[in-house]
Amino acid sequence: MAVSVTVIIPVWNGRQLLMTLIDTIERQTQPVDEVLIIDNGSEDGAPEAAEQRGARVIRLGRNRGFALAVNRGVAECRTEHLAIVNSDVELEHNWLSELLSAKSPFACGKILSAADPAILDGSYDLLCRGGCPWRVGNGGRCEPEAAPIDMASFTAVLFERQAFLSVGKLDERFESYLEDVDFGLRCIARGIRGRYVPTAICRHHGSASLGRWNSDSVRRIARNQVFLIRKHYPRELKRRWWWPILVAHGLWGLLAFRHGAGFSWIRGKWQAFGERNHLPSTPNPALEATLWSHESAIYSAQKRQGPDWYWRVYFGLVGDKRHTQIDHE
């Protein structure tokens, strides 16, 4: 039976990368019905070039963030499936067909570094008790196997449209960064699980718009880390997990200072605590058990991969015998 797919691409400059992505979409073994560009005020001719290639372009006029751009694209989409893809991604020819074969509410695949395809840029997301996520395998050569997942990276992901709509829009207060983790937590609350498909491969240039440690990127990530805690953790969990939360956020702050973005980290935290208008999330009785499972999975994966500095110190400070018990089962 034929399936229908729209590819939604939020764009803010990066004309040449966008053209490369469109090239790889056109080479897919599974044809797409529409390429939909949501332009956040590009100034380098990216939307005009996309139109010349046959894409439909919706112009937002200014940079209103990744989350709002995706929401606008989903609202315009009428196909059975929707793929959300960053503009700095290159898709292997069978990326879409492999994800469709999963027959899952959502699915994501293996994301390789475009600079060095031997290195894994990431796969799916796990969230530690401290409220900071890890993209499984990031920076290593140890690749995760196919598995059910709770959270997909919105770098490149396929959704059944009805599944996405049942969870609701991306939270536009996040603007950009961690909006996909927030969405994953809402999937968990509704019992919606996806699939990691390692045979669906793409390459990611990574933070092409601003840069990984750009001051505005760091500010938003630091703010959104707090938003996740405030939005999803019930008071009892925040009380019991205050130490992992403090450690996770503090260590990320040290990384920001190390990369010359410490004051942006402070600004993000200050902004988060000044924001008081968040809507409550759906009650999630599975949250505690899920995050214990995620943290134990991070612990085990880091042992196989060789722990990086952040997770070595995190587990050294908050390590619990539950992790080592699970690791030896």
Keywords:
Spore Coat Polysaccharide Biosynthesis Protein SpsA, Chain A; single chain; 19% strand; 10-stranded mixed β-sheet; two-stranded antiparallel ribbon; 329 residues; alpha/beta
Written account of the structure:
The strands form 2 sheets. Strands 1, 2, 3, 4, 5, 6, 7, 10, 11 and 12 form a 10-stranded mixed sheet that branches. With 329 residues, the protein is an alpha/beta fold. The protein has helices at residues 15-26, 46-52, 66-76, 95-101, 161-167, 179-189, 215-232, 235-240, 242-258, 262-274, 287-305, 309-318, 321-328; strands at residues 5-11, 34-39, 56-59, 81-85, 89-91, 106-113, 120-122, 125-127, 133-135, 147-149, 156-160, 194-204. It has 13 helices and 12 strands. The model is unreliable at 325-329 (pLDDT under 50). Helix 1 runs parallel beside helix 2. The N and C termini lie far apart (43 Å).
Oligomer: single chain
Q: How many DSSP E strands?
A: 12
Distance between the termini: 43 Å
The backbone outline, from C-alpha atoms, is globular
Short description:
The protein is an alpha/beta fold and 329 residues long.
How do the helices and strands line up, and which of them pair or pack?
Blueprint: E1 5-11, H1 15-26, E2 34-39, H2 46-52, E3 56-59, H3 66-76, E4 81-85, E5 89-91, H4 95-101, E6 106-113, E7 120-122, E8 125-127, E9 133-135, E10 147-149, E11 156-160, H5 161-167, H6 179-189, E12 194-204, H7 215-232, H8 235-240, H9 242-258, H10 262-274, H11 287-305, H12 309-318, H13 321-328
Parallel strand pairs: 1-2, 1-4, 2-3, 6-12
Antiparallel strand pairs: 4-11, 5-12, 6-7, 6-11, 8-9, 10-12
Helix pairs in contact: 1-2, 7-10, 9-10, 9-12, 11-13
